[in-house]
Amino acid sequence: MLPEVLPFGAPIGARQMRAYPSPISRTSAILAPCLALLAPWGMASSEAAEQGEQALIDALSAEIAGLRARGVALERRLDADAAGPWLNEARADELRGIVADVLADASTRTALQDAGVSSGYAPGDGFQIASNDGGFTLRINGQLQVRWVLNHNPSGQDYSPADFLADQVADTNTVAGSRTGWGFGIRRAKVKFQGTVFDPSWSYQVNGAFGPTTGAFNFEDVMITKAYDSGLEVSVGQFKTPFMREELVSSRHQLAVDRSMVNAFFNSGRGVGVDARYRTDQFSLEGAYTNGMQTALSSGQMNTNSSNDPTDYAFAARAQWKIAGDWDQFESFNAAVDQSTGVMVGFAGMIQEYNSSVSDQTAFGLPFVFPPPVLNNADLNGTTVQGVTADISAKFGDFSLFGAVVWQQFEISGQGTTFFNPAIRDYTASKVTSWGAVLQGGYAVCPGLELFARYAYTDAGLDDFSVQIDAPALPPSLAVPLGNSVSSILTIGANHFINDNVKLTVDWGINLESSLVGVSENSLQDLGWGYSNAKDQWVLRAQLQLLF
User: Tell me, what DSSP letter sits at residue 490?
Assistant: First the structure.
């Protein structure tokens, strides 16, 4: 016989036996009638029956042993629950320790293993990842501007710089294409990466943009910067040169849909070189030495290197005095409701000399032919450009104001070939003196709504332009009748700040004069304007800007 088996769930040790029937008894009760049914088969089958019964008994015994083991485990679990909760404080501490160990191990497998890492997002400033000690940081942000423009040009939508030059020479006024045109465009699509390495005094910036017409991606600001405790910062790379304040204020913080025509003519753009800045609570000084700056003569100074450096020298410097307020107030031209008072004045200067590597075949946005086709393949070797500017920025109450004047002088010379002789000849042009002024103001009607107005005046100084070529077969001096070279643009509009990241701007502007000479055709198109030989060209622009 099988030994007696404890009933399922019976307590272990000194506990009293419970009155449950034995599984073996239940099994015997079931097998009894089955064996009785087998009796008629006779003695011949008795041996097989005994073997079958034994196999069944063995299987049941194994199953019962398994059930008994599970019962023992369950009983022990119940005993533990009677003494206290299964997930007691000791076990909770143990689990927390395991989780902490796992997190610590994951942290050691990152680049910031020793310092830890934090991340977050600030509206308008983008996403940031930083080590807890602030040594390593990465900030990613971007800017999108989608623009709709309606342009009415009395000279026609297809009017080109060549058409303008031909009309000036022939004293005519042709019309090329429809006078009215409209459409959508991607004005700006930028992505910026910036941060620090090792410690906050070493920083970097890589800013790229997709071209508004070609869609090609080019880097803009690419800098390595070292900051010193004295307030001095030194950068090497590509950056905006410190001249026109309107250009130095980011496109995301402009008052109107875009910068003024004064800035389009005079701004010095970006250059590759070294820049030093020093700032105190009231003053800031900045100076740059670069491969070259953009001017009305040439815009090809970005992304240059030692093999295509377009200048013999190029310097720019800017000084600013903060009379009242905080420096952060002057990062934007926009007004805010009940803002604190801030006043700042600035002065800047620039000078550079071109070399023979500049041969854009354009000057002041026009074909570089004086007059066509007398001078061809001309370069700017020996040409010098120098300029100064002064500006004032103010914010008080619900208003913001900005005004600037700028002056530049061009002494143009170089070499080229002539229609009469393929030999290279020297040429010089009359000295060109250009100046401009811009005045703009904004009024915060209520939080989220701003009205603004701007007036921009530019005199390119090209009315009496002439060129002298060192060629015996030509007259001593050839006049180039460019006529009126003045633009006078009035702009009014409004900003709706939908939230910290989204702004809708609508403005309307009219040129009270006939000329936009001095600004390249691409720059005019970016601003929504076009070349014209007649007064009263106007544009209506709407732009949605998103920052991320």
Answer: E
